Amino acid sequence: MMQIAIYGKGGIGKSTICANLSAALAIEGKKVLQIGCDPKHDSTRLLLSGKILPTVLEYLRSVPKEEARPEEILKAGFKGIGCIEAGGPKPGVGCAGRGIISPFEFLERNKVKEKYDLILYDVLGDVVCGGFAVPIRREYADAVFLVTSGEFMALYAANNILRGIRNYDGKEHKRVAGIIFNRRNVAGEEERVERFAAAVHLPICARIPRSDAFARAEEKKCTVTALEYERMQGFSAKEKGSFRGRGSQPGNQTGNQTGNQADHILDTPPSQEVYADEYRIFLKLAQEIAGGLPLCEAQPLEDEELEKVVLEEGSTGSLNLPQDGTASTGWLHTSWKTQEPLTAKWVHAAWKTQGESVSGESTETVHKLMEEAVSVEGMRIDDKLPEETASDKGMSKVDGLQEHTGAGSDFQIPLRDHGEVPAKRPPLYGCAFNGAVTTAVRLSDAIVIAHAPKACAFFTWQNITSPGRKNLFNRGILLPSAISPNFESTDLSQTEVVFGGMDRLKASVRAALDRKPGAVIVVSSCTSGIIGDDIREAENLSTPEIPVLVIPADGDIAGDYMEGIRMCLHTVAEGLIERYPEKRPGTVNIVGEVGVSNNAEVNFRWIKGLLGKMGIRINCRFLGNASAAEMRNFLAAPLNILAVDSADNTELKTWLMENYGCRFLPGALPTGFQETKEFVGRIAEFFEKEPPAEETAGPESIGTEETTESESIGTEETTGPESIGTQGEKADKRSRPQMEKPLHRLAEAALREEEKGYHKAIGELRPLLSGKKLLMTTISTNMDWLLLAAEDAGIEAVWVGVLDYLHQGIRICRSEKVQAVTQELFDIRTAEKKIEELSPDIVVANYTTAFSPGNYILDNMPMTAQAGTLSGVSVLRRWALGLAGRKEGEWLHDRKLYQKYFA
Amino acid sequence: MTESCIRSISPDGLTGIIFALEGMKKTIVLFNGPMGCRFYHSTTSGFLVMRPLLYLPVNEKGERAPVDYNYLNDWFFRQDRVPCTYLDGYDYVYGTRDKVREALLFIRENIDFDLLGIVNSPGAALIGDNLLEIARQTLGGSRVVMLESPGYSISFEEGYSEAAYALLSQVAAPFWKGQETDFAVSRNVAGISQMSSDNNEGAYKASINLLGISIWNRYFEGDIKELKRLFSLCRIEVNAVLCADSSLEELYSMPDADLNVVLDPEMGLLAAKYMEEEFSVPFYVCDTLPIGFSATEKMMREVCARLEEISSSGRTEKAASPIQTEIHPEFPGTACHFRTAQKAAPFVSSLDTFTEEMEKARALAFYKINGIYQMYGKPRGVSFCVVGNTARKKAYTSFLTTYLGMEETDAGHAELLFSNANVISEMMLKNRTFCGIEIELPGMGYVDLTLKTHLGIEGTLLLIEQVLNGIMSRL
Prior knowledge:
The complex is a heterodimer.
Chain A: E1 2-8, H1 14-27, E2 32-37, H2 56-62, E3 75-76, E4 82-85, H3 96-109, E5 118-123, E6 143-148, H4 152-169, E7 176-182, H5 189-199, E8 204-208, H6 212-219, H7 224-233, H8 237-243, H9 260-267, H10 276-291, H11 303-311, H12 331-338, H13 344-352, H14 363-375, E9 395-398, E10 401-404, E11 414-416, H15 432-440, E12 446-451, H16 454-475, H17 480-483, E13 487-489, H18 494-499, H19 502-514, E14 519-524, H20 526-530, E15 548-551, H21 561-576, E16 587-591, H22 600-613, E17 617-622, H23 628-632, E18 639-642, H24 647-660, E19 664-668, H25 673-689, H26 742-769, E20 773-778, H27 784-792, E21 796-802, H28 816-820, E22 822-823, H29 828-838, E23 842-845, E24 857-860, H30 871-884, H31 895-901
Parallel strand pairs in A: 1-5, 1-6, 2-4, 2-5, 6-7, 7-8, 12-13, 12-14, 14-15, 16-17, 16-18, 18-19, 20-21, 20-23, 21-22, 23-24
Antiparallel strand pairs in A: 3-4, 9-10, 10-11
Chain B: H1 13-22, E1 27-32, H2 35-48, H3 89-94, H4 97-110, E2 115-120, H5 122-125, H6 131-139, E3 144-147, H7 156-176, H8 191-197, E4 206-211, H9 220-233, E5 236-241, H10 248-253, E6 259-262, H11 265-279, E7 283-285, H12 293-313, H13 317-327, H14 337-340, H15 352-376, E8 383-386, H16 390-402, E9 407-408, E10 416-419, H17 421-429, E11 435-438, H18 456-473
Helix pairs in contact in B: 1-7, 4-6, 7-11, 9-18, 15-18
């Protein structure tokens, strides 16, 4: 079996040539299968008496996978030629490349091709993407023909196809059979094609004349080859009768047998027209193929070479091509003469050229000319030849990039030669889709729809539910949004991927709206982004009560995980927040909780309890288990508090301040004793100026507020800090806010309990930890909560290495001692050297670092620390236990056994 | 908000593919996709299987040194499983070939591996890059398996099935057809030579492959151990367990087995059919997973009967011919015992030991169940619900209803809920009082060290134990 791919620019006549070649091969006695790979699926029409086949894609879409049968899409044409149309999506939707891949998989699996001697793939013109290049792959095409005319775009496409082949084959393989020259009778085309063929070192295997014969045959819904074959066979009406209804099965071709198309041909009077020339061309080509064509290496030209070869009159450049200098007037002039409009693609090709061009102008000049030529509809290049060059207008060339330097423009637009991938880009950690969904599900009464294949929905579901399972298993806390998120997926299937998925998305949105959620949020994945689904159309399905919000994350095309969070927060805010809600004095919003953190819920419960003691309530958690109604009333609270003081939250804070006039408390939820003291003071300070509505009610009022679902479920034991005693052991001199007014008194009372507990714990820990040496590597840039507590317990920080991974700016600790040993940029090698050099007792790492066990205790810090006065103390207790016991368990010595049996 | 009882999104084909390939020992699965798609699989794979260290390629002195994960940043991002090409928007436009080639070169230079799998993400599959060719050019040989399309919203089982099929067709078949030349292993490493040496009167022995087990099974290591133990009682050796901690050598040796036993047809039947067609290895499909005494006994009896039948008829010429004469002429004597035997080997009668153990287990179960039944009248009538894939649902449900006399109901009303931790916790959220028993992943977080199983005799006893304790917890 031999497989041949026929490539060429769209509209060049590939299908006609392919069908004629198939017919000729069948006449030569070959069993032929023609597979049309163009979404318009008319490749085999002339072999099937004008009938249009159902496409493989349509068929696979309409039947269950297990019921799909190849015979349903495989039909016999002229002389039993097997005819298949792969099919594809409508223009502008889906991924046509994918549309080729899918049928091929089906045909492979069902071994359809095995019955044939020759397979011909009729493939859409340019190699626009890898999907269309599938037939080029060696497992499919043994040989490739390029169909071209003498027009520049056809040659440009042919050259692109050679590039595609070169990409697959390199220099080692030879698979190009040659050029099939389909004449258009435009001036100079003969020479252009010959120059191109010589330049790419390919033979012109056939020259198809521009002939009315093809049009006449097409009127008869037949190939020229078949018509001439019929004429030569001299079929009589009597013979016609003998063939009627006989038909043949695909692959059952013999020299004496005609197929279904023969029936059609014989329904009309036998042709009296003679198409001997055309017939002979195809028959000769078929015989050459049958006899074994020599194959050539793909040697595409660079764009500038291509232009020189094709456009320049008589030029062979360095290629030493034959010059006749007769008919060729160069492409540019030919364009004028033939009144062919310049296309954007042509301009693009010209733009990429370097050095001198056809008219002696610089490349930049040509670019400029082309740009102007296409800027005014109908205007031709020769209408005006501006003198100003592109470089005068601000074009420059830097390191292989052409860049608009901005003269006369606000934009910097890099343009790349030859579509090269930019230099190594930094990895995107996570994807915007995942970040957006993980955040969106925290809008408690929204339905979040992932416009994605199930794969994306599944691992996102796991990402959301992992802390839910951990909190339940380890802490007995049930977190609704992390256990049963209101999240579903459109589960894009192969069908939607090929034909577009908007119908499915809209159906999912409508179904969601029927369930009366607070909002519907749609997030797009890579797949939906690549196939071009415009999810913004879903916004139109919004009802007066229920908004449909869309987040075009397109997987990671929009950015990384953090970008997805940002997109989601902005979208939710813009879609829900009301500008002038009724004010709720004495309330705060918590902004920027980290959804996947195990500590997020614990921290919220703690701060809720602490604020409650001061008579302050939570208005809205943006975005953490808040309802759409709560989001609408976001601006009702006079004060906002960041949950975590990260770079992303700082950006969010700035955005909310600038766009909504929000007021924020400095800093974030406090971690550690020192921060908690300052935090309480600031809160008191703020609300003294703007008193809570239920100021006098004090802590008793907490239970009266409407609680969210999560707050009403699970245990409260984890909020431990509130249970600490009432009197601190010693006053901390680092900072103490004034506590004179009523709210301050409440705050001081609340804090007093915390303070006593802190100092008591430190007092207990000091004998165990004093003098111990601490070495820390961290990607968190604010470790005050731990380092200050360690300092209070007498621990000496000997080295702190901060990897500025989150680009937050280093402000590791306010302690001067710690600052003196902090190194802002480091790699792990540095840390290992420091461990060796400083012999620490305690090594604190994080998830990006894994140190081998040594003569120290190892600990790991969560990304989001536990809030409250005892954040640091709880860690110190862990260290004390570790240091008090044996530093090594016997198990550590069994590493050698692990390596013996399993490594 | 939640009308339906269960909304948990189950694993899909991409996960099925990755975990099928990750089930192969000393295999690197390069994920050609965004990093976001890969974190879950990298992390989970590390939990599922006790992995050996990654090693640097053997140096000129023949020494092996472990890879330091701290420096394994390129492509691996300091995780030892499932490196990825971290595709971004540019890659979807310009293609992924260069990145894949670069990643392959890195892997080739820095990791000692037997087999490399390349799996496209759903987005990458749209690009259509010919990565298999790049991989073969870069790495040489055919020890590369390419899953070009992960499927779109297909099931875990379909993905797994496709990956298993790809392993056989892209990796095993070339080896058997003599196209794989750079893997320095002789086939007699596998059980075949042993079979050959046992080829004397009375020393009958058969070998089977197990198909349809995944490392994603809740207790896959325990499952394999129990099945191997039970088959060994009948002189049946398990040659390879496809995609479940099996090596490349075992994959190559699969056509040597006398029978493929398909435990879950959704996962293993495609591979079994392929092996029958290409290598004439017959297959047996279990009616249900061997959960419960009856299902286990049925599987054992039917496998033994099938082996007896095969032993008397021998393998077809189609199998013997290419393998013995065309493919590996250097191992002419490696044909399995049954291909030449004409006399039925008495496997069915060798079930005695198995039967005795089974009866003792049933007796033990009776004693324990009866204790509760006498006091509380249970497990009869206890309501249960199984939420899992088709095979599991069928097997568990059959056992619980037939053997224990329990009543099937929906998840919202069941006293015992058999499922994964997502479903179980979801139902707990609804304030349901029930006992959850994990039968599939993800788990709640319990760390297992001892091997457990719900298959075979041992597995059935563990299952009864969990059911009885679940019932007691509700009394």
